[in-house]
Design brief:
about 250 residues; two-stranded parallel ribbon; 9 helices; single chain; alpha/beta
């Protein structure tokens, strides 16, 4: 039996795009793509790879004949960082007819099987965050330093930006198309994970509804950690910059 034919998707055209930034994720990427494209929801996947020297992009290319138009790949020159990769994914989504857009990590920190929960919640709001700090959420295999940093980073961001959400720094999110269309992406100059806070702050200022759902977060088991000490320090400075750049928040929380 032809492999491509046996795995081809013959359902309705996807209305959901999942953006997966990647760097040095060859060990993970094929399994993640398979789990995403096996979901009951009509989902397409876009891998935005920063020219990983381990051949992550090559691993994706070998799967494109199998999944056809459901699997897209953008390879960038140099390591541009997670935040700019997501923004590039947003532009890709807006150039097509996707109604809902996800961002998630490539390392199985985020569970693809939770995507239907996000899609149910997004029906009544503009953006959904997978929060690690809601009742029912779980965090697995974090050390004490990572736990302390995450909690203080979220408290700091909430104290400065005043968005009433519990998790500013988790990159498992779903956006309604209209929310992405409202973003001023040219104004976003933050890099790395702080783009998460800047995007949320823009949407909050525009009165977009933001909701959260519980999530199970599992610390990466394979691959290389992409969160550097420099990014950690930059995150705190950048939150202050975001507040100065955009001013006082006036938004609505779903």
């Amino acid at each position: 039996m032809d492999v491509a034919a046996s795995r081809a998707y013959d359902g309705p055209m996807a209305t959901v795009l999942v953006i997966v930034p990647s760097y040095m994720e060859r060990e993970n990427i094929a399994a993640l793509i398979e789990r995403l494209l096996s979901l009951p929801a009509s989902v397409d996947v876009l891998i935005v790879d920063d020219n990983s020297p381990d051949g992550t992009a090559d691993a994706v290319k070998t799967l494109q004949p199998v999944y056809g138009e459901r699997l897209h790949l953008t390879v960038r020159q140099g390591k541009g960082g997670r935040g700019s990769a997501v923004l590039e994914g947003f532009r890709f989504a807006l150039s097509r007819d996707y109604e809902y857009v996800f961002e998630m990590d490539a390392d199985f920190s985020h569970k693809p099987e939770e995507i239907p929960l996000f899609l149910e919640k997004i029906k009544d709001t503009d953006m959904v965050i997978g929060s690690r700090y809601l009742p029912g959420s779980e965090i697995h295999e974090w050390g004490i330093k990572r736990t302390i940093f995450s909690r203080w980073a979220n408290r700091f961001a909430r104290g400065v930006l005043k968005i009433p959400i519990s998790d500013y720094t988790n990159g498992f999110r779903c956006y309604r198309r209209s929310a992405i269309e409202s973003l001023d992406m040219q104004a976003i100059d933050a890099k790395g994970y702080v783009v998460l806070s800047e995007v949320a702050y823009q949407l909050f200022l525009k009165g977009k509804r933001i909701a959260e759902v519980p999530t199970i977060f599992v610390n990466r088991r394979r691959g290389i950690s992409n969160l550097s000490k420099k990014e950690i320090l930059e995150a705190f400075h950048s939150v202050l910059r975001i507040r100065r750049a955009y001013g006082k928040a006036k938004g609505v929380l779903a």
